[in-house]
Structure formats: structure tokens, C-alpha cells
Amino acid sequence: MGDLHALPTPSLLVDRARVERNVMRMASRIAALGARLRPHVKTHKAIEVGRLQAQAGMQGITVSTLAEARAFAAQGFDNITYAVPIEPGKFAAVVAMNAEGTRLAVITDDPEVPASLAAVAKRAGVTVDVYLKVDCGYGRAGVDPEGPALLEMAERIGSAAPLRFAGLLAHAGHSYQARGRAEILTIANAERDVMVAAARRLAAQGIAVPCVSIGSTPTASHVEDLTGVHEVRTGNYAFYDLMQVTIGSCGAADVALSVLSAVVHRDRAQGKLILDAGAIALSKDAGIADPDGVTHYGRLVTLEGEELGLRVTALSQEHGWVQTDDGAALDRLPVGARVRVLANHSCLTAAQHAHYEVCEGTRVVDRWVNHRGW
What we know:
Blueprint: E1 11-15, H1 16-32, E2 36-37, H2 47-55, E3 61-63, H3 66-73, E4 79-85, H4 91-99, E5 103-108, H5 113-124, E6 128-133, H6 148-159, E7 163-169, H7 181-204, E8 212-214, H8 217-222, E9 231-232, H9 242-247, E10 257-267, E11 272-275, H10 279-282, E12 299-301, E13 307-311, E14 314-315, E15 320-323, H11 327-332, E16 338-342, H12 346-350, E17 355-360, E18 363-369
Parallel strand pairs: 1-17, 2-9, 3-4, 4-5, 5-6, 6-7, 7-8, 8-9
Antiparallel strand pairs: 1-10, 10-11, 10-16, 11-15, 12-13, 12-16, 14-15, 17-18
Helix pairs in contact: 4-5
């Protein structure tokens, strides 16, 4: 299909070999620990990556939007968990997908949701699987695993026919605040222990828990024991990113996503380069500060992947600013030079683009659609 020099800028690039390696490694890791892998496709939103994950042995997918659910269901992915707390405005869409033959499970921690969702499902003559969202320490949503709401909500879901209590679900999003393997492993162990203990509390009250579902890329990359856990939901691992490198989830050689950009302005006196990839192409996630204290919006590498020692330190809508006192770097990158900007947060960067240019080295070998929207 051509090479990187022939692409317009900015373009979203994905390294096929790295994606395949990342997908296989995580699948093998979770299988070896005795759990099922239900990848979160919000990172890539690409059917082709989903198929790679299916070939590696995944069992179902996780989505964050109904648009993702519809796109993947249309391509035969019929075992889906919608992992954003369900609200009444989406009941009809969820019930309709279940009526069409897709097992689209939902999550909730709200005491009013089970009865009202059950009424909609009953009118349609379908059963909907519902997970109880549990807070394992992140603090974003979910019931207290040690409080009365755990039992009350499980009973509400289980008694609201035609809903089916699918189990307990949590996300250790606070793992993104960890630094290094030891800190991540502490959170991973707590995530597991909290959820397994919550399942035991319910079992002691005669409530069976069909599935204990956990997951984040940092914890999944380091956890050593998943006893009592049935499935792991992790998404970022397919691409990884600079944030995961800094946290310690992966190495720089695992980062599969970058944005192709061109130098559009060079100022030797000010030590400045301007790229044509700004906030719309890279996202405005500044990620985690480097050891020197500088926050940035991505690192520059050559088309072959060689580190240039440069960072995008400021953004406007269509422009990325690169400050440097390295005269040799300025000499190397005249106006028109192409570089790749490694993503800070691959999920957000990918969401800025309609498709991926799939690369093998500097050759473009395919194009994958990014199924965005809500």
C-alpha cells in the first residue's frame, strides 16, 4: 500500500507486529493464571484487533459505548459487557440488542435501576445479565464491598426478573497512580482480595456469584495470583503507551501506537519546532511527568523508531510545539521532515482518528476502521 512518506499528516499509525505480540502475551499470561480474558475494546475500537484477541483465546469483549457494542456485534462478537453504569436513557438500546441475539450485559450500583430495567426487559421478552459494580479502591463508582449495599443490590438484581445476576465487577483505575512493579502488585493483590471477599460475603448469604470480573492494564500486567477471579478485563495492553512505560507495565518497545506528523516550522534562534499534530491529533492528555519534571504530549521518534530525544511540550488545536536546545536535532529536522509521536495515552489518541494506518516497519500494509461514537 505504500510507505510512511506517502501518507498525509497527521495520520494514526499502528505497528502490527507489536499489537500481535502484546495481544498474545496478555492472553497467555491470563490463561496461565486460570482466568478468562475479556478485553476492553475501547482502546482500539477496531474489528481487526478484536479478531486478533479472539484468535488468542479471549472469551467475550468489554465496551465503553453502545456504538462499540453495535459495531462489534455486527461482526459476530455476541458476548459483550457494557462496562459503564447503565442509565434509563439506554435501556431500550440494551434490550433491543439482547432481543437481536447479542448477550449484552450491563453494570449498575444504583438501587433504582434493577426494577426499572427489568420492566423494559419484560415487555420485550428478553433476559438481561446485570453485574453489580463494586468499588475496589478507585473511588469512581461502585458499592462498598464491606457495606450493606453489596447484599442489598445483589438481592435487588437477582429478584428483578427477567434480569439475571451476572456477578461482581470492578476496575482498579487507581493502579494508574502507581509507579513500578511493587506498587502495582500491591494494588493488584488488593483488587483481587477485595472482590473475592465480596463474593464470599454473598455466598455466605446464599447468593451465588457466577463471575468475579476485575481488570486494568497495570494490574493485569503484574498480578501473580488470580485465585477466586473468573475474568480479567484489560484494554490498553493491545497498544500500550508512554504512560504505561512510565508506570512500569511495559517497555518502550511494546508501544504500538504513534501519530505521523510533519515539521511545518523551524526556528533555530528560539530552539523551536512546530509539528502539524496538535490537540486534535494527539489529545490533550499530558500523561505523567518525566524524571526531569517535564510533562508533555508525546515523544518524537524517527520513522524507523529511533529516539530523537524530543518532546511535544505544548499544543494548540492543530500545532504541536517542540522546544529544544539541541542544534543537531534542529538541523536534522527541516520543514517537511516526518516524525512519529509516541502516544501518552493510546486510548485517547486513537479516539481522535477515524482509522489506523497499519505498518510493518515503514511500510503501510493495511487500514483499520476506528468505530468511534456513542
